[in-house]
Amino acid sequence: MQFLYAFLVGGALCLIGQLWIDKTSLTPARILTGYVVAGVILSAVGLYGYLADFAGAGATVPLSGFGHLMAGGVRTAVDEQGAAGILTGALTAAAGGIAAAVAFSLLAALVSRPKEK
Questions:
Q1: What phi and psi, each to the nearest 5 degrees, are found at residue 61?
Q2: pLDDT tens, 21-32?
Q3: Which residue, among 50, 101, 40, has the nearest Cα to 74 in the 3D structure?
Q4: pLDDT at residue 107 tops 90
Q5: 117 pLDDT above the threshold of 80
Q6: How many CA atoms within 13 Å lie on the side-chain side of 20?
Q7: Half-sphere exposure (CA, 13 Å, Cβ side) for 33?
Q8: How far apart are CA 61 and CA 77, in angstroms?
Q9: With contact defined as beta carbons under 8 Å apart, do 11 and 63 qualify?
Q10: pLDDT (tens digit, 9 = 90+) per residue, 63-95?
Q11: H/E element holding 65?
Q12: CB within 10 Å: which end of the chain, N or C, has fewer?
């Protein structure tokens, strides 16, 4: 059942984003930013944790899950370091994912050849 829940929740998040792209004049960048901010807000009020527990990767892999990860990192860093954790917590929590994205992007750029249209 965990796979079904992950598929349904992740698919619903993608469906909402696609509807926003199709039915509004919002740019994809604004929609992606909105997902991250929504993840932070839902995590701050304590709701996103329940969704992540219910749906697993269906809730933690999309961009709203990235916002949830950053909010959790800030919360932990503030508990450990005080006010300085506000500035360092989000990047510390997401450092592994950010480093992997940069490394794989560099590898893809080195391996592939761009073509003119």
A1: -80, -40
A2: 999 999 989 999
A3: 40
A4: yes
A5: no
A6: 16
A7: 5
A8: 22
A9: no
A10: 888 888 888 888 889 999 888 888 888 888 888
A11: helix 63-81
A12: C
pTM of full prediction above 0.85: no
Q: Which of 54, 50, 51, 52 is nearest to 2 (CA)?
A: 54
Q: Cα angle vertex 76, ends 71, 82, to 5°?
A: 110
pLDDT score at 33: 92
Q: Which two tokens stand for residue 11?
A: 């698919």
In residues, how long is the chain? 117
Give me 4's structure tokens.
Answer: 């079904």
pLDDT band at 104 (very low <50, low <70, confident <90, very high): very high
Mark 22-48 as b/e (b = at least 16 C-beta within 10 Å). eeeeeeeeebeebbbebbbebbeeeeb
Tokens 């510390």, residue? 92
